[in-house]
C-alpha cells in the first residue's frame, strides 16, 4: 500500500507543476487536460473556459509521486492541515530547496539547527502548499 499526496490547485496546476520542475527537479510523469478526457465530463464538472486546465497530473519528486489537478478551477486553493516534507542529506541542499520553495512564498519557520536536526525549516510556496525541509541527522 502507498499513500500519495493529491493536490488541487484550483486553476494553477500547470504553473505549479512547472514551478516544482524548476525548483525541485520534479519529473512530470503524466499531464492530461480537461478537453482530453476519454469520457465526456458530468454536467457542471468543468466550468466554461476551463477546457485547457489540468484534469490530472502526476510528477515525481525524489522517490515520491505527487498527483495534482486544477479541480473545479474556482481560483481558491486551500492547503491546510498538512505539510509535504523533504528530507535531504546536507545543509547546502536544504538551503537551496528552502530558498527555491520560498521564492514568492512565505517563510513560516526559518531554516536552522534544532534539537532533532542540523537543519529544519518550514515554508509555504507561492501556491500556498506548506513544506518542511529537514536535513537528515
From TrEMBL:
PANTHER family: PROTEIN YJDN, PROTEIN YJDN-RELATED. It comes from the Bacteria. InterPro entries: 3_dmu_93_MTrfase, Glyas_Bleomycin-R_OHBP_Dase, PhnB-like. The lineage of its organism: Bacteria, Pseudomonadati, Pseudomonadota, Betaproteobacteria, Neisseriales. This is VOC family protein. Residues 3-134 form the PhnB-like domain.
Amino acid at each position: 500500500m502507498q499513500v500519495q499526496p493529491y493536490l488541487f490547485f484550483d486553476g494553477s496546476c500547470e504553473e505549479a507543476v512547472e514551478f516544482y520542475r524548476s525548483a525541485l527537479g520534479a519529473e512530470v510523469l503524466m499531464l492530461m487536460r480537461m478537453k482530453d478526457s476519454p469520457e465526456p465530463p458530468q454536467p457542471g464538472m468543468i466550468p466554461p473556459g476551463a477546457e485547457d486546465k489540468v484534469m490530472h497530473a502526476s510528477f515525481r519528486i525524489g522517490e515520491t509521486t505527487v498527483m495534482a489537478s486544477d479541480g473545479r478551477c474556482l481560483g481558491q486553493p486551500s492547503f491546510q492541515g498538512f505539510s509535504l516534507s523533504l528530507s535531504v542529506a546536507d545543509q547546502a541542499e536544504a538551503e537551496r530547496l528552502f530558498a527555491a520553495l520560498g521564492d514568492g512564498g512565505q517563510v513560516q519557520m526559518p531554516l536552522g539547527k534544532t534539537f532533532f536536526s542540523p537543519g529544519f525549516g518550514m515554508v509555504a510556496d507561492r501556491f500556498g502548499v506548506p513544506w518542511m525541509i529537514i536535513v537528515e541527522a
